[in-house]
Amino acid sequence: MDPVQRRVGGWGEGGVWAVRGDWVGLSSSWIQTPEDQRLGDGSSRGTDHSHKVLPICEEPSASFRDQQETSRRPAEDQQETSRRPAEDQQETSRRPAGDQQKTSRRPAGDQQYFSEEVLRFSVMSCRAVSVLLVSLSISVLPVQSQSASQDTFIIQYLERRLVQVEERLNQCEQNMASVTQKTYDLSSEVRGYLSTLSVMRSEVRSQVEGVSGRVERLERELEYLENKMPTEADIQMEEALLEEQIKAAELEQLKRRARIKVDHDCNAALSQIKSLKIVKKAGDSHGSWFKDPTEGSNKVYLLSGVRNDTVLEFDSLQSFVEESGGAGAQRVQLPAHWQGSGHTVHDGFIYFHKADTTNQILKVDLLNRTVVDSTLVPGAGRLPVYSLNPDTYLDLAVDELGLWVIHADPEYGGNLVITKLDKGSLSVDFTWDTQCRSRDAEGAFLICGTLYVVYNTRYGGRSTIQCVYDIHDTIHSAESPVLFFPKRYTSHSSVHYHPGDRELYAWDDGYQTIYKVETRRNRPAPAA
Predict the structure, then answer these.
(1) Contact between 489 and 461 (Cβ < 8 Å)
(2) Would you say the pTM of this structure is higher than 0.90?
(3) Which backbone phi and psi does 312 adopt, to 5 degrees?
(4) How far apart are CA 73 and CA 346, in angstroms?
(5) Are 453 and 492 in contact, with CB atoms under 8 Å apart?
(6) How many CA atoms lie within 13 A of 323 on its CB side?
(7) CA–CA separation, 405 vs 428, rounded Å?
(8) CA distance 437 to 144
(9) How many C-alpha atoms does 288 have within 13 Å on its Cβ side?
(10) pLDDT of 322-340, one tens digit each?
């Protein structure tokens, strides 16, 4: 049963036992303590709780009535009286002395009657108390049980709510930690961006300062140019002066051309290549040989190969023919290697294209073997001068008018260009652009300032002269007939003209060959 809090008082044996305000359980006429209730009916733990079960009241026995009637147990009455509650003792003690005396003087019959009345009252009181306790337990126990159930439900509800609050607090703490970490990462990233922005701002500032300085400088220069800009009158004067200078230069060029023609009185033109003489076979398949065109000189020079630095010098053509393997020749060691086969000799000096350079020409003294002078030919050395001799980029020649250099210029479609050089200083006197192509050409030579280009096929054949260019403009290629070399199906790596002997010294696939040429007097150019 559910516990009921009740303070109960009673009298001695056979009546109501005193209980000191504990939680007791009511079962019939017995009261059970809360400890027994917690143990569950007092039998689950195997412990004797009979000392805690108190009788409330019971029906008095016959012997007890007899003893009460006869009053033969005074000692027991005294003991029962001694166990009365303190309130009864105090009430009895407060009785007036007179009443005590009256009671003491009561007769034994009255005492017996009084005892019976008291016993009867006790029984009735016990029954009334029992009925009252039962009614109270019946009315209070459902309310107490309902209250306990509600308390249990509320406690369980509160526990569940507390668990949910703890879970939410944990989730909140995790969210706060995540937000804190994200905030830290974002702040780090923002700091990095700020540092980068600071660097970029410094760079932009420096660039803006540089641009500002340049703009200021440009403004000053524009102001200067505006102040220095010539007027229209000054421009007209400068144009007139330039035209006068151009006319003066053209006139000077015409005068120099006339002076060249008058000094040498050279108006010969090639008419025929009539004879062929194979002198000797010596050296490589490519090379160059010639006789010094200086008046009174008979020396012959042989340069074998397209890249070398040794020149064989013979005293005469006869010694060249007689000497075998160059045993009697003088070997001249040059200070640098030559390139190609377009060399020439004049007045004891050899002129050649220096190897590993684009357009440098060296002038070397053959006596002391030292470089006397050098020059760079403008626009030369970018293409082979003859397509059938791809190792030759500059071809040097000597005629009645002096020293020449022949080369091909890609800016003029690969056509040949001839340049007049000063023999002493190697300075450029004049340059002429010709209409003669370098494609399928194998060599060229000049006679009295007229260029004759030799053509052939890449497989070898009969060489022909198909293009002529006269610097005096007295010979025109369209009017000149095609000239054929003597019948021989081969190719030439070099062709050099000797003005005194009127002969061509050619290197023909390792054979040293001489061609005899005939010239005719060139008619003067028609008056303009």
Answers:
(1) yes
(2) no
(3) -95, 125
(4) 185
(5) no
(6) 19
(7) 10
(8) 133
(9) 33
(10) 887 667 789 999 999 999 9
Residue 286: what residue type?
A: H
Q: Which residues contact 279 (CB under 8 A, 6 or more apart)?
A: 317, 320, 321, 511, 512, 513, 514
Domain locations in the chain? 4-154, 230-265, 266-521
Tokens standing for residue 83: 């166990």
List, for the chain, all residue ranges whose pLDDT scores fall below the cut of 70: 1-118, 123, 126, 129, 133-144, 230, 253-265, 325-326, 477-479, 488-489, 522-528
Which 3 state secondary structure label does DSSP give 57?
A: coil
Element (H, E) at 4: strand 4-5
Q: Which two tokens stand for residue 223?
A: 């102001």
Instruction: Give the span between the Cα atoms of 344 and 499, in whole angstroms.
Output: 13
Residue 295 — φ and ψ, nearest 5°? Answer: -65, 130
Taking each helix axis from N to C end, the angle separating 62-70 and 108-228, rounded to the nearest 10 degrees, works out to 120
Query: Taking a C-beta distance cutoff of 8 angstroms, is the pair 321, 280 a contact?
Result: yes
CA distance 84 to 471: 171
What architecture is the 266-521 domain classified under in CATH? 6 Propeller (2.120)
Q: Residue 150 corresponds to which tokens in the numbers above? A: 């509600």
Q: How far apart are CA 327 and CA 162, in angstroms?
A: 124
Residue 277 main-chain phi, psi, to 5 deg: -135, 120
Phi first, then psi, for residue 176 (nearest 5°) are -65, -40
CA distance 498 to 517: 10
CA 373 to centroid of chain Cα atoms: 54
Residue 273 burial by CB count (10 A; 0-12/13-18/19+): exposed, middle or buried?
buried
Count Cα neighbours of 299 within 13 Å in the Cβ-side half-sphere. 19
Bridge partner list, 362: 352, 374
How much is the mean pLDDT over the chain? 76
Tokens representing residue 365 in the block:
């003294």
- pLDDT attached to residue 412: 86
Contacts of residue 504, Cβ cutoff 8 Å, sequence gap at least 6: 273, 445, 495, 496, 497, 498, 514, 515, 517
Look up residue 262 and give its two tokens: 């008058």
